[in-house]
Design brief:
Blueprint (H helix, E strand, L loop, with lengths): L1 H21 L7 H4 L15 E3 L8 E4 L4 E4 L13 E9 L18 E7 L3 E6 L2 E8 L2 E3 L9 E6 L2 E8 L2 H4 L6 E7 L20 E4 L12 E2 L28 E2 L19 E4 L17 H7 L7 H6 L8 E6 L13 E10 L5 H11 L10 E7 L2 E3 L5 E3 L1 H15 L8 E6 L10 H13 L3 E3 L11 E7 L11 E3 L1 H8 L7 E5 L3 E4 L7 E4 L4 H18 L5 H11 L1 E7 L2 E8 L2 H9 L2
Parallel strand pairs: 13-17, 14-15, 16-18, 16-21, 17-18, 21-22, 23-25, 25-29
Antiparallel strand pairs: 1-9, 2-3, 4-5, 4-11, 5-6, 6-7, 7-8, 9-10, 10-11, 12-17, 15-27, 19-20, 23-24, 26-27, 28-29
Helix pairs in contact: 6-10, 7-8, 10-12, 11-12
Length: 596
């Protein structure tokens, strides 16, 4: 019987895939491929059932010779608190009343593995070979790509919540049969477990997990599991005459920790093309440098977070009383910019034996004493490597490792007093629905959101509504407080100027930022070409300021206020003006929150 059920599971999965991705079926083979379970013995319905009536939704239905098409062109989102969170597959039944949790009919037909309802009207779901998102409103899922609108029903059976979702596969769209139901069980937040201990890769010894003692959290003493050693760039970065003919797409002319004092750098057309740090040795003769280049001035000038943040600091809005968590690469714990902010440091599945560039950079951008957006916020940091280096040289991203770190941070947060809670997690990494570990990271972010902890990634729009985070670059010598100083990053200009719409992107400062270096406790770096990795901690730091001003703020409220007060970002190319997003307006955001 078990083998028969497995075979049925395969048939149903294939039917579903063919319907979704081809949009049609061969009418000559429909009869043979139809999967029916008409002969299955149906148990009596379970007792103690609470049922709810779902609202009507205007579904537009059309059909052709191939299939039925469903769509919803206009609707008002109706929330449904009962469904929020993660649901895991339990059974597959022909009728809702057929389901009995004590006598499951088809527990092996688990092609539809789980669904996560998010409170902004988005749902993420996982099949055994596919991940995606859809819209939802009370009573319905709106799968636009598949052009079906399945209804759902929630029932409480013997004090356990179950959701019944219509499976509108080829049996429904192509063969006009009544949909069967996937039955999913509500997952308790306490059931979400750590995953990293189960990793079984050939080179797992490359990664270390060194945890701090959570029981010591909240006693106002730094808890540092280990102290990473400074990184030595001279082992990996070289710059000589031949380097002038090979400008890197990201780093341009990377001279960090290099001695270029005997070179003629005046051949470099723009000083913005020079990436350097405190250890770079430049020619003493200014004639051998690009016009306008002054390394000491540029490093100091670009410590300013920009956009009026220092004006807010002068008003006492510094992130005091708020904690920020960062998940990133190894951190140099004693850098002068953030050593007094750092309250917690540990490793979870982290490779390498020294501090890394990313860690010091994002920490200083978020909480650095003269660089950071929130210089008085406290910092809780987990170093991780969010994937595996495979034996063939490839790198495999695994979002479940990030999920572990998020869950760990939420556990840490339980030990913190209310006036020191972690309110935001900065993760300078993106993900998508097809990534390994997508289910786990979505569950973890959902749990954080339920505890009013904002999780900011480079893929914020995967979870939060109307929030596409982007960044802007700026000339080394342009005023960081002037909105007009900012320009689209080089890696989006071709798209922008060819007509790709970036008007809804939310822009944060990104390029030409001086940041703490991992090479020494008083060292700094700067590069013109920024990445979203720098926009994320800037945003996290700003959210900390907002939490100080309005302690009960939520991520969605922050997003709405930012969108309402932002300033249109314009770029001119060949005489034509392009809108490349909306620049966050920190002063106006704070004023708006203070008036609430």
């Amino acid at each position: 019987m078990r083998n028969i059920k497995r075979l049925l599971s395969v048939f149903i999965a294939l039917t579903f895939i063919l319907t979704v991705f081809s949009g049609c079926s061969n009418s000559g083979s429909n009869e043979n491929n139809t999967v029916t379970l008409q002969d299955a013995t149906m148990p009596e319905a379970a007792t103690t059932i609470e049922e709810t009536t779902e609202p009507e939704l205007k579904i537009e239905t059309s059909s052709d010779s191939e299939r039925i098409y469903e769509n919803v062109s206009d609707y008002t989102f109706i929330p449904d608190d009962r469904v929020l969170g993660v649901w895991q597959f339990a059974d597959y039944v022909q009728n809702i009343e057929d389901f009995n949790p004590d006598n499951l009919q088809n527990p092996d037909i688990n092609y539809f593995q789980n669904i996560n309802f998010i409170d902004n009207g988005t749902a993420t779901f996982t099949f055994d070979d596919y991940n995606d998102t859809c819209e939802w409103t009370k009573g319905y899922l709106i799968w636009r790509g598949w052009q079906v609108v399945p209804a759902y029903t929630v029932k409480n059976i013997n004090n356990t919540d179950y959701i019944f979702i219509e499976l509108k596969s080829g049996d429904y769209t192509n063969r006009r049969q009544k949909p069967w139901y996937y039955v999913l069980k509500k997952v308790s937040a306490d059931d979400i477990k750590y995953y990293y201990l189960n990793h079984k890769y050939p080179n797992e010894q490359w990664y270390s997990t060194v945890l701090s003692d959570i029981s010591k959290v909240g006693k106002n003493e730094p808890i540092i599991a280990l102290r990473e050693q400074p990184c030595d760039y001279t082992q990996s970065i070289r710059f000589d005459e031949s380097s002038l003919s090979a400008k890197d797409e990201i780093w341009a002319y990377d001279m960090r920790s290099c001695d270029v004092s005997q070179m003629d750098l005046s051949v470099i057309k723009s000083y913005n093309d020079i990436t350097f740090d405190s250890l770079t040795k430049f020619p003493a003769d200014s004639a051998k440098l690009p016009a306008g280049f002054n390394e000491e001035y540029m490093l100091e000038y670009n410590k300013n977070p920009g956009l009026g943040i220092r004006e807010l600091h002068e008003q006492g809005i510094t992130g005091a009383g708020v904690s920020i968590a960062i998940i990133d690469q190894g951190l140099l714990p004693d850098h002068e910019q953030y050593k007094d902010n750092l309250m917690y440091y540990e490793r979870i599945h982290s490779s390498g034996n020294t501090a890394a560039m990313h860690g010091s950079a994002v920490s200083s951008i978020a909480v650095g004493k003269s660089i950071g957006v929130a210089p008085d916020a406290k910092l809780y940091y987990i170093a991780d490597t969010n994937g595996h280096y495979l034996e063939n040289g490839d790198y495999e991203f695994d979002a479940s490792i990030i999920a572990d770190c998020i869950l760990r941070i939420l556990d840490i947060n339980k030990n913190l007093p209310e006036n020191e809670k972690i309110r935001v997690i900065s993760i300078s990494r993106g993900y998508n629905a097809n990534d390994k570990g997508y289910k786990e990271i979505t569950e973890a972010i959902d749990k954080a959101n339920s505890e009013n902890v904002f999780v900011i990634t480079t893929s914020t729009d995967m979870y939060y509504k109307n929030f596409i985070i982007y960044g802007a670059d700026r000339d080394y010598l342009a005023n960081p407080d002037d909105f007009k100083s900012y320009e689209p990053a080089s890696w989006i200009r071709s798209d922008l100027y060819s007509g790709v719409n970036h008007q809804n992107d939310t822009i944060f400062p990104m390029g030409s930022r001086t940041y703490a270096s991992c090479t020494g406790e008083q060292n700094y770096e700067i590069g013109y070409e920024g990445g979203l990795s720098w926009a994320v901690p800037w945003c996290a730091g700003f959210y900390a300021l907002c939490c100080q001003v309005k302690p009960d703020i939520t991520p969605q409220e922050f997003i709405e206020v930012v969108n309402a007060t932002s300033i249109s970002a314009e770029s001119i190319n060949d005489g034509k003006t392009y809108i490349f997003g909306k620049i966050v307006n920190p002063v106006e955001v704070i004023k708006t929150l203070q008036d609430k």
